[in-house]
Protein: DNA primase
Organism: Methylocystis bryophila
Amino acid sequence: MKFSPSFLDEIRARVPVSEVVRQKVAIKKQGREWRGLSPFNSEKTPSFYVNDPKGFFHDFSSGKHGDGFTFLMETEGISFPEAVAKLAAMAGLPMPVETAQEREKDKKRATLTEVLEWAAEHFQKQLRGPQGREARDYLARREISPAAQAQFRLGYSAPGRHDLRDALAAKGATVETMIEAGLLIHGEEVTVPYDRFRDRVMFPICDRAGVPIAFGGRALAKDAQAKYLNSPETELFHKGFTLYNLHNARKAAHETGTVIAVEGYVDVIAMTAAGFPHCVAPLGTALTVEQCGLLWRMAEEPILCFDGDKAGLKAAWRAIDTALPLIEPGRSLRFVLLPGGQDPDELLRSGGPAAVAEALQAPLPLVEMLWRRETEGKALETPERRAGLERRFRELSAQIRDPSLRRHYERELDQRLSQLLDARDRRLAPAFRRRGEGFRRQPAGASTGGAVSVGAALAGSPLFRGVKTPISPRECLLLLIFVNHPSLIAEHLEDLVAVEFEAREARALQQLLVEIGTSRPQSELDCDPSIEEEIERAGLGAFLSRLEGMVAHANLWSVRKGAAASDAAVSLRQVLSLHRKVSTLNRELRAVERRLANDPCEEDQARLAEIRAQLSAIDGTEASLEGFGSMSGRVSRAL
């Protein structure tokens, strides 16, 4: 009797493997697994493990492996239908009644399976025969040994149009069955069906039990229309629902704790021969949802090992989009992009197993690959593009269904984006040095080369001077230190450029200071010349007086003129350090507030309180600086 996958999956969901095993074996919980003495061998040290999340048991003493059905079959010597009946009773599920239609379908599947097995045997025989010489030469050039050929049941399809058809007909297969098995080409314009695979090295594609259900063929002729050709979709074969070498890799994957997905048949064979038997490959398609599920049944974080060329990158990007809605705590993907654009087979031949092992030692997590895809080579020089990237990250994170993991992705990407933009601001300063002319004030109507320029008329207007955007004590100190100690500008130019002042006058003074730092030689700045006249000419004299008034009664001697440059530098470093901390915390604060607005949760509420506490602690640190507290009065924060 044939049981539907949904019925078997429902039993597995209702009856954990540990519940089946505990009826016969004393097992104890250790972490996420259960452990006990082997029921198959006599031993003193436990080597029998059960993993409920993955739905399997594994006995290291005997190598036996399987699910709850397998365990009953192994320990009680019963058939699969009998094991299903027992577990269905434990699950409280009635056994399905097989209809005449289902019996006919099972019979048809058995016939297709038999014909495909005959085809695999025929192809193997052809490879060993006289017609298979060119195919054997090709495999020798690819360094696929006879032992590997036998292990993977490689074969050869002769160039004749009816070679396979006639051979299978001689065994009793009908043309209709061969068509349904995907072995023959047919159609309205094809009067006589003919072999689908001709003059190709043949790779059997097997189900979980190792039974051939389809084939892949690699053309030997250079002028072949398709280099690789797979069987079409059939009753037995759905290419998005299986993986090449799945039947061999399952046990190895469970033993090693990981599974590696590569791109091609030859890559799988080469990797297996080199000591990496836990290797599979998709079947000429982008990784599907169902294939991700197969990988996760073997390992929590499968490694996708793609060629390091553009096609490999493209495959990695598509895999990210497929996996994002599916990942959850303990279930993700890792990525390895091989060096030099090589595939695994090429890397093995050029560098040996050690080169592949080295590449596999540092796989990239999914979040890192996502970050690289969205940021590498992207220009972020405008607010619109930066906002677009931020929105893109929110949209991608929203695809993650698990709420906790989604919040962690949002936080990680927010932090990375903040760091990226901070680094970008720091990189601007050297460019400004090289293009110092871009900071000089221009006549009205002239191009500023991208710099924010304030003309004398605008800077001196009542409208401009009347703007009273609050400025924080921290911003006030930064500007006054640079005004009264201009020799520090060049050394801290990157820090000055990176500050995002809120007040319009502060930004104008910042621009003027950057211009002075990039246009004057350091020797001139070291002489401590007065720059108040330039500030007055720029229409910023009133703003400077306002800043000086803010510190008039504070004991901030290092900010004032006449203080040693070394003392001023110490104060500057203190204020800059506080500024960076506050800027980073405020960015995260805004990100958390956005998340709370969309999806309130206790974790983000706690993080919000934590950030606010850290900001309050920094306020206390500011107050402890000499003179800072006496001038601050805890005014509203402008950073």
Notes: Confidence is low (pLDDT under 50) at residues 431-467, 629-639. The chain has four domains: 5-91, 100-237, 241-375, 458-632. The CA atoms of residues 148 and 273 lie 7 Å apart. DSSP finds 28 helices and 16 strands in the chain.
